[in-house]
Amino acid sequence: MTRDEAITALVGEMHHEIFRVGDHPALGIPVEQVQRWADTLSALGGRPETGWQPIATAPKDGTHIDLWAKAWSPAFDKFFYQRFPDCVWMAGDSMCNRAPYWLNLDKDWCPTHWQPLPSPPLQEQP
Fold first, then answer.
1. Which of 87, 98, 121, 124 could form a disulfide with 104 if both were Cys (CB 3.0 to 4.6 A apart)?
2. How many angstroms separate the Cα of 92 from the Cα of each of 40, 54, 56?
3. How far is CA 48 from CA 27, 35, 112, 116, 119, in A?
4. Is 68:114 a contact under the CB 8 Å cutoff?
5. pLDDT tens readout for residues 81-106
């Protein structure tokens, strides 16, 4: 079975289990099952996508992440939204940047959400 076939099979299993449990919400999905799915995806070189999360939960330990941010435009009298890839929290402890800030986030943009960077593509073996 190829990697793509294995991931497709795993996602099919997850879909079936989630919708089966969806009929009986009190049952829930056992933590062990979710961990097995995550371990299988990791072994296949994938990473489960967690989607956009509130900015208050963003890591501030040097981890690179994608940010979703908004900026107010007085000229258009509305907010604009944009994705900023590969951002990292900087503590702001240098002489030039004394206040904390997000590296790679443009000035005047306010982050609202974050998500982990996607997994890199698999390298083809010769």
1. 87
2. 39, 22, 18
3. 23, 11, 22, 10, 9
4. yes
5. 999 999 999 887 777 777 788 989 99
Per the structure block, which two tokens stand in for 23?
């009929």
Rounded CA-CA distance 8/10 in Å is 5
Note the pLDDT tens digit of each residue in 14-25: 666 665 554 444
* Token pair 């907010």: residue: 79
**Rounded Cα gap, residues 7 and 16, in angstroms:** 14
What are the beta bridge partners of residue 69?
82, 111
pTM above 0.85, yes or no: no
Of 52, 51, 60, 41, nearest to 3 by C-alpha is: 41
Q: How far apart are CA 117 and CA 103, in angstroms?
A: 15
Give the phi and the psi of residue 8 in degrees, each rounded to 5.
-60, -45
